[in-house]
From TrEMBL:
Binding site for GTP: 115-122, 197-201, 255-258
Protein name: Signal recognition particle receptor FtsY
Reactions accelerated catalytically: GTP + H2O = GDP + phosphate + H(+)
Stretches assigned to the AAA+ ATPase domain: 107-283
Location in the cell: Cell membrane; Cytoplasm
Main location: membrane
GO CC annotation: cytoplasm; plasma membrane
One Pfam family it belongs to: SRP54
The species this protein was found in: Zestosphaera tikiterensis
GO molecular function, one term: GTPase activity
EC number: 3.6.5.4
Subunit composition and interactions: Part of the signal recognition particle protein translocation system, which is composed of SRP and FtsY.
Length: 304
């Protein structure tokens, strides 16, 4: 389905550029071409406001312009579409650099990672720990997923490989008190960042949702990060809404971008959730975490 976003984007650029290579594009012509595109974006749950904003920006750039016969109309249109999308994606970009943010804040800086099952929370924490360490900061990893079998060991292996301190409770222990232990450990040992892993949870599980609320109430994190799978598509909106309602979401990390070869799914997710994207995951290695910037999506989406 998301393949369609990319295909339609292509057809939009080629239809507009066909006209522009011969004559000026009238608003009526633009409108007709765009409405076809709107339909595909809506089908993919891209928010109407985002679509309207895109239309307005594009209309300004494309209607009534004359292209010199020395310029390729195709390049011109692709450029304009890219610029318009860039503007929208920039509004959804977490502008601060996490390393700078931590350096400028009182220590320890506490981050809680949350999200539904299997989106990549644990892997992402290992990547973030690696990034912080590489930048001269001292993190501690805290396993507050005391729920899923194997979760503690999975995180412990990462901590050992990364040579980062690791705090865990027993299976079935209260995640909030494990998280608090992690913060106390960081205070005592003058560590810079506390990275708290939590169990995957669905909004339908009231107990687990109450539990994450308690973790947040007890440790009062500086940052609440929602981890989303870029391939999730339409459900991303719901996930963002649930966690926002329960504890609030300060930033999003979008994982598995490497699996969204064409970028359409990620584009839909970003334009619909109305949250700032901080990092994107692009693989399973520790270094596969990139600071989000619109070009990561655009280059994929509009490459010819
Ligand atoms: N290709 C790819 N795979 C990823 C990425 N991030 C995570 N994964 C994989 O996704 C799977 C699930 O990752 P986890 O980190 O265990 O996910 P989780 O959210 O902690 O899962 P639960 O704790 O069970 O809810 C693993 O196989 C990871 O290697 C990514 O950016 N790209
Ligand atoms: Mg996990």
């Amino acid at each position: 389905m998301f393949k369609k976003v990319r295909e339609t984007l292509r057809s939009l650029t080629s239809k507009v550029s066909d006209t522009l290579s011969k004559k000026e594009l009238s608003y009526e012509e633009f409108n007709e071409i765009f409405e076809e595109f709107r339909w595909v974006l809506s089908e993919n749950d891209v928010a109407q406001e985002a679509i309207d904003a895109l239309k307005e920006i594009l209309a300004k750039e494309l209607v009534g312009v004359k292209i010199s016969r020395f310029t390729s109309s195709k390049d011109y249109v692709v450029d304009k579409v890219k610029e318009a999308l860039r503007k929208l994606l920039e509004e959804n970009t977490f502008q601060n650099d996490l390393v700078d943010l931590v350096k400028a804040s009182p220590k320890p800086y506490v981050i809680v990672f949350m999200g539904v099952n299997g989106v990549g929370k644990t892997t992402t924490i290992a990547k973030v720990a690696f990034k912080l360490k590489t930048n001269g900061l001292k993190p501690v990893i805290v396993a507050a997923d005391t729920f899923r079998a194997g979760a503690l060991e999975q995180l412990e292996i990462h901590a050992k490989k990364l040579d980062v301190p690791f705090i865990r409770g027993k299976y079935g222990a209260d995640p909030a008190s494990v998280a608090k232990d992690g913060v106390i450990y960081a205070q005592k040992n003058k560590l810079d960042v506390v990275l708290i892993d939590t169990a995957g949870r669905m909004h339908t599980d009231r107990d687990l949702m109450d539990e994450i609320r308690k973790v947040v109430r007890v440790v009062k994190p500086n940052l609440k990060v929602l981890v989303l799978d870029a391939l999730v598509g339409n459900d991303a909106v719901n996930q963002a809404k649930w966690f926002d309602e329960v504890v609030g979401v300060d930033a999003v990390i979008l994982t598995k971008l490497d699996a969204d070869a064409k970028g359409g799914s990620a584009l839909s997710v970003i334009l619909t959730i109305n949250k700032k994207i901080m990092y994107v995951g692009v693989g399973q290695g520790y270094e596969d975490l990139l600071k989000f910037n619109p070009d990561l999506i655009l280059n994929n989406l509009l490459e010819q």
